[in-house]
């Protein structure tokens, strides 16, 4: 995310001019934009032109001139200022759509007309808020830091199927899914591996990807790695040949377990300083405590709030969905909780609901905590 210009302060109105540069930026800006905000950007508008032409037709033996109306369409570029009423993130298309009323009339659109805009990468826009709260400013700062793209590429292989994932700080993306009906000979195997290789070549960029994990039961991963390296040598693909050390093998079960791969110690060691891995480690510590020392872990809004009233929270885990709730009072409550935990010296991890670790946390109400000291009677305290 590139910030071109900003004029804002905490808990005041203000605006920012920005350009989204990476896919993760789209998710960040989806969490940044809220109902009531104003966006200014260029868009294209369909204009219909009516044209008339005279033709000579024969009618009852006479030549009669008739008039035909023809409609031509063109698209014109216009600048719109929209007061936002709805925000939507399209997971499959990786795009953000905003809908709202046009505030400034122009030649082609009256004031008050509803319109839907797509917030696109590499396109400048202005965002204005009546109040920039601490969460919005944090998102803006996070996005404006140096982008890292996807840290990890994961290829999960099963007999006759493969999935290619890119895992960034905020989003886990399933880039390709390859299926083959039968792999019962060398020719069929090579055709399958060729399709996986093409997906790998399309999506994996070693300028950002730190390591590639090949996961499978049995020897499928080793067979594909051999095919991949052989093709890279044949095609003189230096990007692969120079980065062979970045490939690691992980044994997995028959289920396509991305979680199993992400918890592998070798994988976590290679990308240990990324935000995504720190979140995975925090969630793993929390889930381990639930099994081994449950008095030092809790989840659910009431349990977590009660624990913080006792200044017991060492680490707070919360999904971004809760921090962007459409219910203003609920959103403010969670923001105050985050602020309180930080003020008391605790750590806070905001999990993306588009990331595999965030999906796991969402299944446990979206909020959890690791405690400084045991609270064996916590359940009784909240009754």
Give a brief description.
This protein is α+β, with helices and mostly antiparallel strands and 383 residues long.
Give the overall form: flat
| CA radius of gyration | 27 Å
Biggest sheet character: 7 strands, antiparallel
The overall pLDDT, averaged over residues, is 84
Query: What is the number of helical segments per DSSP (H or I, 4+ residues)?
Result: 13
Q: How many β strands by DSSP?
A: 16
Plain-language structure description:
By secondary structure, the protein is α+β, with helices and mostly antiparallel strands. The protein contains 13 helices and 16 strands. The protein has helices at residues 23-32, 134-144, 186-203, 220-234, 238-241, 258-262, 265-270, 275-292, 301-309, 320-323, 328-343, 356-362, 378-381, and strands at residues 2-7, 14-19, 38-59, 62-90, 95-102, 114-119, 125-129, 152-158, 161-167, 172-179, 211-216, 247-251, 297-299, 313-319, 347-351, 367-371. The strands form three sheets. It has a seven-stranded antiparallel β-sheet with strand order 1-2-7-3-4-5-6. It has a five-stranded mixed β-sheet with strand order 10-9-8-11-12. It has a four-stranded mixed β-sheet with strand order 13-16-14-15, sandwiched between helices. Strand 4 (62-90) and strand 5 form a beta hairpin. Helix 1 (23-32) packs antiparallel against helix 2. The longest helix has 18 residues, at 186-203. The two termini are 45 Å apart. 31% of the residues are buried. Residues 56-66 have low confidence and may be disordered.
């Amino acid at each position: 995310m590139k910030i071109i210009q900003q004029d804002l302060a905490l808990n005041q109105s203000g605006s920012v001019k920005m350009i989204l540069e990476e896919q993760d930026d789209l998710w960040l800006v989806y969490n940044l934009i809220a109902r009531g905000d104003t966006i200014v950007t260029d868009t294209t508008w369909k204009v219909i032109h009516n044209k008339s032409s005279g033709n000579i037709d024969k009618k009852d033996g006479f030549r009669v001139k008739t008039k035909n109306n023809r409609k031509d369409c063109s698209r014109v570029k216009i600048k719109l200022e929209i007061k936002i009423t709805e925000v939507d993130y399209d997971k499959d298309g990786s795009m953000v759509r905003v809908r709202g009323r046009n505030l400034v009339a122009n030649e082609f659109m009256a004031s008050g007309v509803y319109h839907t805009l797509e917030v696109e990468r590499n396109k400048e826009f202005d965002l204005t808020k009546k109040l920039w709260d601490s969460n919005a400013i944090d998102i803006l700062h996070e996005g404006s830091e140096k982008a890292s793209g996807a840290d990890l590429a994961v290829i999960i292989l099963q007999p006759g199927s493969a999935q290619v994932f890119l895992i960034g700080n905020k989003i886990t993306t399933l880039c390709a899914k390859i299926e083959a009906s039968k792999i019962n000979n060398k020719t069929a195997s090579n055709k399958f591996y060729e399709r996986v290789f093409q997906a790998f070549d399309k999506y994996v960029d070693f300028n950002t990807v730190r390591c590639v994990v090949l996961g499978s039961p049995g020897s499928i991963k080793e067979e594909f790695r051999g095919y991949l390296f052989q093709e890279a040598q044949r095609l003189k693909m230096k990007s692969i040949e120079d980065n062979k050390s970045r490939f690691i093998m992980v044994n997995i079960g028959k289920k396509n377990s991305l979680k199993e791969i992400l918890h592998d110690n070798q994988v976590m060691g290679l990308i240990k300083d990324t935000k995504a891995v720190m979140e995975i480690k925090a969630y793993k510590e929390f889930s381990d405590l639930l099994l081994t020392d449950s008095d030092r872990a809790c989840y659910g809004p009431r349990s977590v709030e009660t624990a913080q009233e006792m200044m017991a929270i060492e680490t707070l885990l919360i999904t971004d969905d809760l921090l962007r709730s459409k219910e203003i009072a609920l959103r403010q409550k969670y923001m105050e909780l985050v602020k309180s935990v930080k003020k008391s010296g605790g750590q806070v991890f905001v999990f993306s609901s588009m990331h595999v670790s965030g999906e796991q946390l969402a299944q446990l109400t979206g909020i959890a905590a690791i405690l400084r000291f045991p609270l064996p009677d916590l359940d009784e305290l909240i009754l």
